[in-house]
Sequence to fold (226 residues):
Amino acid sequence: DVKVTQSSRYLVKRTGEKVFLECVQDMDHENMFWYRQDPGLGLRLIYFSYDVKMKEKGDIPEGYSVSREKKERFSLILESASTNQTSMYLCASSFALGLSGNTIYFGEGSWLTVV
Amino acid sequence: KQEVTQIPAALSVPEGENLVLNCSFTDSAIYNLQWFRQDPGKGLTSLLLIQSSQREQTSGRLNASLDKSSGRSTLYIAASQPGDSATYLCAVRDNTDKLIFGTGTRLQVFP
Fold:
């Protein structure tokens, strides 16, 4: 079974803190994604990585950065957390386009509250 | 820009009913379409994936169809059960390898 693991399920951070959200997948997937999910707005793509050290901005990258030093790990970084970044963050992974399956798999989500 | 819409936003049905969830998208140049289930406070679980060249996919009581030319997909759930209660999301994958999601249909099946 494919597994996408988000290390922190629930976090509470203070405004201005630097926050790291970690995601690990065990299927040797090329692609990894970070989304945030908010009521009424659905899932919005923050960043996307299609290979080690490669990244691409999604729809809402402002206030976030990412790191992909190893194929299995994709980190989302909030450089200076703000209250409007309180949300549920979802990590996902998949094979690249054209390869088998192309199903995208999600982690369980990380609930972040910034106070 | 691709937009994905799901109707209805919420649905409440008695157990045993057959039901249809709708998903529409504005740009027919998609690579595939995927249906997901999300339980409250949890991540997304993939239900069905339909490649752009396919018309439908089936898994157990679920059947998903795709009409690319009209920009529509439906998820059919047969003989609904209370355990089917969840939010159902569709997402289209374009040739940039990204998924664009609808806002979901919240389904409640009552005994």
